[in-house]
Amino acid sequence: MRRVLYTLLLALVVCIPAQGQKTSIKRLESQRAQLEKDIAMLNRQLARNAKSSSAAMNSLTLVRSKISAREKLIAGCDETLRLLRDSIGVCQRELDRLQARYDTLSHYYARLVRGSYRNRDSRLWYMYLLSSESVGQGLRRFGYLRNLSSQMSEQALKIRETSALLEVEKERLVTLKDQADQMRSKVVKERASLQDEEAESHRLVNQLNKDRQKYQQQLQEKNRQKEALNRKIADLIRAQQEAAAKAAAAKNKAKGGKAETGKAATTSTEIDAKLSGEFAANRGRLPWPVEGAVVERFGKHKHPVYTNVDLPQNNGVTLAVRRGAEAKAVFNGTVTQIVVLPGYNQCVLVSHGEYFTLYSKLKTVSVKAGDKVVTGQTVGTVDTIGGEDQFHFELWKGSTPQNPESWLRH
Length: 410
Prior knowledge:
This protein is an alpha+beta fold. It has helices at 2-49, 56-118, 122-130, 135-210, 212-254, 270-281, and strands spanning 292-296, 316-321, 326-328, 333-341, 345-352, 355-365, 372-373, 378-382, 384-385, 388-397, 400-402. Strands 1, 2, 3, 4, 5, 6, 7, 8, 9, 10 and 11 form an 11-stranded antiparallel beta sheet that branches.
């Protein structure tokens, strides 16, 4: 029983650090797979853009997004390689420890065998017992001889157990070294791809600077579209808040209470308060509305080429997606309104109590105003606008836009 417990304890001590590193490596592999998927999708969009001479600005956005994803991919590979090197070190030390134990056990076993061989004649055993000076000494000598065979069996078992663990660690070391070699090759390949992408970025910047007037006109048009979207969504949310406030005030007045006005009445109904609380409780855990790579982030930014130009406030995130991708609701709610805007095509606004989400750049819409939607329900399919397969998503708390990336699942 003690031998079994010892073997299990030894195996557990060996496996605990290995399991922890294996979990970390598995997490990094999952992140790497997603980044590789994003890069592949960006490559497909860049291939389509290559057919258009006026798509340099979009191509630059895609290339820079790809560079960002590639840098994260390389960082993940470097971290995986570090973990593998650590694992190899731990494995090598465990291998050395087991080898030393194996050598010690083998040496002790050899001594037992030699002693047993010298005393193999049973007459010598009898003489050894009969020559005892007292009964106590005789009993001790008898106990020694009786236990000699048992000790040899136990020692042989320990040697076999240690030998088995030794073989496991040897195989693990070979596997880890193979994985490390593959990861080193991958890092070299990814760094070469990164250099090519940075060169392509420089080429596009030069092209944009060369045809500055033409691309600035395109930029001005896109900026007007974004500002129009910002105004429209703010107006829709304000109108929704006012309508909710009036409805709550009327309901309160009908019950004989004092009418409430303004924002305080916006979420005064029990269902709105509950829905708002549930939505807020899921911060950082909401599902992404569509699978894709983020190419435009929340907030105010400078133009990537014309650095003296301030871009309009981006109230959400824009993702490069596969052609015809489905956009899905991130939480239970009610469709407030569907509008059509230049550059953003069909846009669906969904309310979640005091929170709102916007799904835009849609080709088809599968819901209508007043519909109840549930998490994961399709609200529409993404359109191809100006050769771009992109989806724009926004999240608001009342009249204040939020950074969607801090709410969506990482």
